[in-house]
Amino acid sequence: MSRKADHFVLRVDPILCDGFGHCHELAPELVQVDEWGYPIIHEDPTPTSDVSLLKSARLAVRGCPRQALRIERTNGPA
Amino acid sequence: MTIDALPRVMSGASGRPLTLREHEVTFGTSTVGGALAGELEASGLMGRGGAGFATSKKVELLRHQRGHHKVVVVNAMEGEPVGHKDRSLLSSNPHLVLDGAQNVANLIGARRVAVCVSRKDSAIVNHVQRALHERERRGTGPEFILHTPPWRYVAGEESALVHWLNDNETMPQYRPQRPNVLHVGRAPALVVNAETCAHVGLINRFGALWFRELGTPASPGSTLVSVSGAVHRPTVLEVALGTPLRSILRAAGADPDPLALLTGGYGGAWISGEHLDVAYCNEDLRSLGATVGAGILVVIPRGACGLAETHRVVKWMANESSRQCGPCAFGLPALAEDLRTLLHDARDPHGVLVRLKERCEVIQGRGACRHPDGVVRLVDSALRVFHGHIDEHANGLPCPALTMARRWVAVPALEHESDLVWE
């Protein structure tokens, strides 16, 4: 059953990403970095109602120098 | 007319490619009564390129795409250095592969078929060229074009192949949407492995029921296996899916009591030599963490060092990364370096082992293509299968295999070792 897409996940294009690490600075709750400085993104969907998280996700998307990030709307966990 | 038992796609093989006339004598020209789409679905044919995805689903997806300029891409790149099945097939039955490609093209409504053979194999390129000329003289069917991308491990990945057709670059692309349709220009493209094409060609002739006479219910039909390593002579065999590994090894003249088998390819998994009674099909191999993959078996005998073999493969795979994604470009050399440390100068072997496992978890699933995942699967399975031997290395015991010159898994020489991006 398709429900309203009231969750989001941050997605990175691994080819575009050059490991600047800005996303980790801007959204530390959602993005970890590995030992080489590339983002490890929290995979579980976050509810859109969590305004502060959504805000930092948007900051990360805007702050990415390679424009490799985007926010994907999904359904919540089943 | 049908073909009895085995070989199927390799029947009529005589050490040289069959001409179109010989091909028609061997396999006949009649086609099965029903529609191919239905037959394909009933046959349950799984792609033979490595992923093992149902061909009928793929065809169905492309069939419902809009546009009249669809392309069928026949993938005979054979990126696996220990695989030889597509080349064997094209150098004995090229027309069967082309028949299958033509059938698929008719099915999805494509007017172009791009046959991709690596330029490294000039003999195969010649065989395909000759076969295409013969068909051209008949003057029917879709337009066939031969492409010869340079050989690299990742060049056979479907998005890399389509990238080649578009931009003359063999880099995998990032495709977030699933299911995903690749495009050549604006034309939707269906990428099919050469062996899969050959099976389609046979299903179109003899039907799904005939196809299901061999194999298991979940993975029907026959498949080509390239067996190398501790064998009398590396061979490509055609076996029914579900044949026990032991009989495949016997047929290939391999070591009957090996230490381990590398299954699936360089991005596959090791399985221990104790599991020789397992059937060669995905549903049974999965319980051991392995898959049929690209139809590869490499046998390593007792006395060989599984860790050393894994290290050589991983080092080569790290070099073959197209270095687009950070986790692959930096992670795979790091894995290779960890394996080397374990193998040769273990100052803190247990720490290295822990780090290796952590790195495997970190790298998993973070590339644009499945290249890093394959290497992680290989390393994971090596840690599982050879754990006793790895402990010996970690505890500083001497490894007699390291002093022997013989290595079992064939790994091409690194071309640009100095270019390796080490940590």
Distinctive features:
heterodimer, A: 78 residues, alpha+beta, Alpha-Beta Plaits, three-stranded antiparallel beta sheet, 2 helices, 23% helix, B: 423 residues, alpha/beta, Rossmann fold, Ubiquitin-like (UB roll), de novo design (two linked rop proteins), five-stranded mixed beta sheet, 10 strands, 13% strand, globular
Would you give an account of this structure?
The complex is a heterodimer of chains A (78) and B (423). By secondary structure, chain A is an alpha+beta fold. In chain A, 23% of the residues lie in helices and 26% in strands. Chain A is elongated and about 35 Å long. Chain A starts with 6 loop residues before the first strand and ends with a strand. In chain B, helix 11 packs antiparallel against helix 14 and helix 12 (326-343) runs parallel beside helix 14. Chain B is α/β, with parallel strands linked by helices and 423 residues long. Chain B has helices spanning 20-27, 36-43, 55-63, 85-90, 94-108, 122-138, 158-167, 194-211, 245-252, 282-285, 306-320, 326-343, 349-363, 371-385, 387-394, 400-403, and strands spanning 70-76, 110-117, 143-147, 182-184, 187-193, 222-229, 235-240, 260-263, 269-272, 296-300. In chain B, 42% of the residues lie in helices and 13% in strands. The mean pLDDT of chain B is 90. The N and C termini of chain B lie far apart (61 Å). The interface between A and B is medium-sized, with 15 and 17 residues.
